[in-house]
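User:
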Amino acid sequence: MNPRRLIAGILITLGIVVLAYSGLRFSTPGRPVDVGPIHVETTHSHYIPPVGGALALIGGIVLLALGNRKESR
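Assistant: Predicted structure:
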């Protein structure tokens, strides 16, 4: 399996998941903050809008189409 097909498959899968859930929201850990005796953990929220999912899906399909065209030559 060539890398182009692998990347296309990942993009298509990600695009379908994002569109199915009408966007994805996830959090990543941030820097811990120490203020005297108080220790606070922070998080960063991220959002992937449905438009991003549609673009990933289209990009994956284009990659697959380009890969198939080059293999048929």
